[in-house]
Design a protein that fits this description.
globular, YyaC, 6-stranded mixed sheet, Rossmann fold
Length: 194
């Protein structure tokens, strides 16, 4: 799949993003894989809190075989991501991991969401050597890249991050409902829609 790019401000794109996520979720659901939504980032830098905000918005999503890692209370960041990935791989047999993270880009791409079937390289903007992760990646471009990316992340507008978090969490939530049906936890498996 080519990278798909969506403008978070355009409400039509939320449905397009939802449908694109469904295309990838359905085969994983049919093959009975656990779905892990890995929300990467920290709440200590505005530009890097996209993942935890998405996790916070999705933490009450109750479906069998859907697991959310990372939110504002328990963020997944450079210090713990390796342990979290190890825990996920030892807890679930062949999980389908949807990795979500913020990234920096060019000015005309700020506010856009990138969906790709390649793993995320968390911490790349800050030259951190962390493990790549994700069968499906969802990246939100929160600000422009510059000579000091750490400073840019610290000075990112919360409004931009919130718009991206809302678009991503809404799309994911509705993709799961569309893929698994509208019933909760124990009934969801019998009523998969895919």
């Amino acid at each position: 799949m080519k990278k798909l790019i969506f403008d978070s401000i355009d409400s039509k794109n939320i449905k397009k993003l939802r449908d694109s996520i469904c295309e990838h979720l359905c085969p994983a659901i049919k093959s009975k894989r656990d779905i892990v939504i890995l929300c990467i980032g920290t709440d200590r830098a505005t530009g890097d809190c996209l993942g935890p905000l998405v996790g916070e918005k999705l933490k009450f999503l109750s479906r069998k075989r859907i697991h959310i890692f990372g939110n504002l209370e328990n963020p997944i960041h450079a210090q713990n991501i390796e342990n979290v990935i190890t825990t996920i791989k030892s807890t679930f047999n062949d999980p389908y991991i949807i990795a979500i993270d913020a990234c920096l880009g060019s000015l005309h791409n700020v506010g856009y969401i990138v969906l790709d079937t390649t793993p995320i390289n968390p911490g790349a903007a800050l030259n951190k050597n962390l493990p790549s992760v994700g069968d499906l990646s969802i990246i939100g471009i929160v600000n422009i890249t510059g000579p000091s990316d750490f400073s840019v992340l610290q000075n990112t507008r919360l409004y931009t991050v919130m718009m991206l978090a809302e678009a991503i969490s809404t799309s994911l939530y509705h993709a799961i409902l569309k893929s698994m049906g509208g019933k909760k936890h124990s009934e969801a498996l019998e009523d998969e829609v895919c």
